[in-house]
Specification:
378 residues; Anthranilate synthase; ten-stranded antiparallel beta sheet
């Protein structure tokens, strides 16, 4: 049934195919585009109450002060089962006629070096996440409905999504990171921070995973994120369980440090959207202190993040819901696909390593879309 929902997707719908459930929402009863978590939560609650709809779906931007794009759909189908797509997940598709890095690898490395210099000044910036983009141009309009089954098949442990955005755009991706999920009084968050590309051989892959787990730099980067998530969730919880250290999580192209945080809410009626607003953006996509990191991002990244590194998900009238961090993603408009990849920069980061990490993260989406030749050229 989950495969049926993926195959039924058409541009303009909302799809979220997560490991434990798949949701397809179609039609547009109402759009809620408030800015700021409080106004957004109020607007969504009113829209759900007025319409009698069971849930709202959509995307939150990287900057919470900018308008979100949430839709109260006309039709919703949701199944609780692991997504499963038969067939070749990496079948070839039409290659782009143009590939433009924004910025190129050398300019990105220089931005990382600038950030490292600032991070080494005591008492200031502790971490900043810097991203780069890749603009692909195609001769014909991109057929998302044809691409999504392959993306799901290539990323069975990820949450694959396609979320409509203003202006006819679609945010599509395969994210490994759960921002927050809420069911009744139970809440779960699974931050990822600290990454390394997968190895070319089983031996190299195991060695890289072990090195990541032992890396003081990556452990410090991860700890910053876990501390922030814990601080944001604790006021909502009567009980919160935070593991003492991270474990390893893998995507097809990247190893991550991962910590699964679970809790029991003091108020079971608090909504998943409210929790997402309290958490977003975490240091996993921004940095810390948040204001300093956001300022550095605005200066060092030569593009507008828009909905990249925001969140994608759903919230129900009951308060239940799930929100995923919008990474390993791209914005699609007609004949253009704009991909994004970021890396957490710490005082001992090496620019060449961050270039390699972002290239590997581009590969997750490119290979899932059948564009392995582009990934191999990065």
């Amino acid at each position: 049934m989950s495969a049926e929902l993926v195959h039924d997707y058409r541009r303009g719908a909302f799809l979220l195919a997560a490991p434990g459930s798949t949701l397809l929402a179609e039609g547009e009863h109402r759009v809620v585009a408030e800015a700021g978590p409080d106004d957004l939560e109020t607007g969504v609650a009113k829209a759900l109450a007025d319409s009698g709809a069971p849930l709202a779906v959509g995307a939150l931007p990287f900057d919470p002060a900018r308008p979100a794009h949430l839709v109260v759909p006309e039709h919703v189908r949701q199944v609780d089962s692991a997504h499963s797509i038969e067939g070749d997940p990496v079948r070839d598709h039409v290659l782009p006629v143009s590939v433009e890095p924004v910025p190129d690898a050398d300019a990105y490395a220089r931005a990382v070096a600038t950030a490292v210099t600032r991070l080494r000044v005591p008492g200031g910036l502790r971490k900043v996440v810097l991203a780069r983009a890749l603009r692909l141009g195609f001769a014909d309009p991109v057929d998302l409905a044809a691409l999504l089954p392959g993306l799901v098949a290539a990323n069975p442990a990820a949450a694959v999504f396609a979320a409509p955005l203003p202006g006819g755009r679609t945010l599509v991706g395969a994210t490994p990171e759960l921002l927050v999920a809420k069911t009744g009084a139970r809440v779960v968050s699974n931050p990822l921070a600290g990454s390394v590309p997968r190895g070319a051989t089983p031996e190299q892959d195991r060695a890289r995973a072990a090195a990541l787990l032992a890396s003081a730099k990556d452990q410090a980067e991860h700890r910053v994120v876990v501390e922030a998530v814990e601080a944001a969730l604790r006021p909502f919880c009567r009980d919160l369980v935070v593991p003492a250290g991270p474990s390893l999580a893998a995507t097809p192209t990247v190893w991550h440090l991962s910590t699964r945080i679970t809790g029991e809410l003091a108020d079971p009626d608090v909504s998943a959207l409210r929790l997402a607003g309290a958490l977003h953006p975490t240091p996993a996509v921004c940095g810390t202190p948040a204001a300093d990191a956001r300022a550095a991002i605005g200066e060092l990244e030569p593009f507008d993040r828009d909905f990249y590194s925001g969140a994608v998900g759903w919230t129900a009238a009951s308060g239940d819901g799930a929100w995923y961090v919008a990474i390993r993603c791209a914005q699609v408009l007609d004949r253009e696909v704009l991909l994004y990849a970021g890396a957490g920069i710490m005082p001992d980061s090496r620019p060449e390593s961050e270039v390699a990490e972002t290239a590997a993260k581009f590969g997750t989406l490119l290979r899932g879309l059948g564009l392995g030749e582009v990934a191999d050229s990065l």
